[in-house]
Design goal:
The protein is an alpha+beta fold. The chain is built from twelve helices and 16 strands. Strands 1, 2, 3, 4, 5, 6, 7, 10 and 11 form a nine-stranded mixed β-sheet that branches. A four-stranded antiparallel β-sheet has the order 12-14-16-15. A three-stranded antiparallel β-sheet has the order 9-8-13, with no helix packed on it. Strand 5 and strand 6 form a beta hairpin. The longest helix has 19 residues. The two termini are about 30 Å apart. The chain binds pyridoxal-5'-phosphate. The site of pyridoxal-5'-phosphate has 15 residues, from helix 4 and helix 5.
Length: about 375
């Protein structure tokens, strides 16, 4: 108990908040947000047309090094569309990790496909290349139409690794393994805007990468998402699908395939653009917070999760790992009773009612982490 109080006291000092509520992650609007939003209102371009949408796409592509970026209404529908664009069809299977936010698994289900859950790396909390390669070697066979699961005889169309809490997974190895097996990689980079693996921005390794700009993410557009592409033809198709597959024409309404109303309104893109201008500053401040935490936790029996040598994390949500579940639970209880917001990791996907029947391999790392991990306050401090 003494230790737990010591941690909470430290968080209160770090956030210069001696007794008030400390959120897990609050957005900061210190830039051109108001100015750009006012411009939307003054010009009446608040909806599907306007200069901020194009600019936001261009600047995100620039920042991440993607060839093209296409905005969506949120990260979840960006993932859904990315899977469709990667060629995931009804009754296909998609490999992912059980330690993730529900959107990752749900987007697979939206395609009427089946998730397969494989274990994560203990160090970076993302999909483990060893468990992936093990599974593919022993449980699948290559046919001319792709990689097939020997157990179900279904095609494994895609793999969705996730960069957990902003820490890059070993994405280059994952992409290599998947390429050998003709499996498309859709990177769930929803939490890792501003994170790099071996010098390259997360979300630009796979066929398609997905970002989220939900209110709790490092950048927010209120709600929003983005798909990142290497292939500009695929990006063009993505844009077409997000805009109801309407054929460009000065007045006629003709649609040439089943599309979606998934495009981000100008008003959200305006907010996003103003946020993006501050990203480097946010990243610097987050790095300082993470360093303070790392120094503090290096002296006690709780492990602070750090970026790997090969990566640069955005430290979106700082996390610590307790020795056991009891210690973890006492910490969660004390913090939340004392107005310091902390949260456990998500309930693992294969334990949720929608996914209990899905194929799982050994998930011992994910299970070990889920019992011990806690996210601690991580907002940008001003
Ligand atoms: C936030 C998030 C998403 C997308 O969420 P939206 O709220 O729909 O933007 C997807 N995957 C992960 C891992 C996330 O954290």
């Amino acid at each position: 108990m003494k230790r737990i109080k010591e941690i909470v006291d430290f968080i209160r000092i770090l956030y210069k908040q001696p007794d008030g509520f400390i959120p897990l992650h609050a957005p900061v609007f210190n830039g051109n947000e108001k100015k750009y939003l006012e411009e939307c209102i003054d010009t009446t371009f608040v909806s599907s047309v306007g200069r901020f949408v194009d600019r936001f796409e261009e600047e995100i592509a620039d920042y991440t090094g993607a060839t093209k970026a296409v905005v969506c209404v949120n990260g979840t529908n960006a993932l859904h569309l990315a899977l469709l664009l990667a060629g995931v069809k009804r009754d296909d299977e998609v490999i992912t990790q059980p330690l993730t936010f529900i959107s990752t698994a749900n987007s697979i289900l939206y395609c009427s496909a089946y998730p397969i859950f494989l274990d994560v790396d203990n160090a970076n909390l993302g999909l483990s290349p060893e468990s992936l390669s093990n599974f593919l070697k022993t449980k699948t066979e290559q046919k001319s139409a792709g990689c097939f699961n020997k157990l179900t005889n279904r095609r494994i169309a895609a793999c969705v690794p996730m960069h957990t809490f902003g820490h890059p997974c070993r994405i280059d190895e994952i992409v290599d393994i998947c390429r050998k097996h003709q499996i498309k990689v859709v990177e769930d980079a929803a939490e890792s805007m501003g994170s790099y693996y071996k010098g390259k921005h997360t979300g630009t390794f796979g066929e398609i990468g997905v970002l989220s700009f939900n209110g709790n993410k490092i950048l927010t557009t209120g709600g929003g998402g983005m798909m990142l592409f290497k292939d500009s033809e695929l990006a063009r198709h993505a844009k077409h699908l997000t805009t109801q597959a309407k054929v460009a024409h000065p007045w006629e309404f003709v649609h040439d395939e089943m599309g979606y109303n998934y495009r981000m309104p100008n008003i959200n893109a305006a907010l996003g653009l103003a946020q993006l201008e501050q990203l480097d500053n946010f990243l610097q401040i987050k790095r300082r917070i993470a360093e303070s935490y790392a120094t503090f936790f290096s002296n006690i029996d709780v492990k602070f999760v750090r970026e790997s040598k090969e990566s640069k994390s955005n430290y979106w949500l700082n996390s610590v790992i307790f020795e056991n579940r009891e210690y973890r639970d006492s910490f969660l209880k004390y913090c939340n009773e004392n107005k310091v917001m902390t949260r456990p990791a998500w309930e693992l996907m294969h334990r949720l009612p929608m996914y209990t029947g899905n194929q799982c391999e050994n998930l011992s790392n994910a299970e070990w982490i889920a019992d011990r991990l806690v996210n601690i306050p991580s907002s940008v401090i001003y």
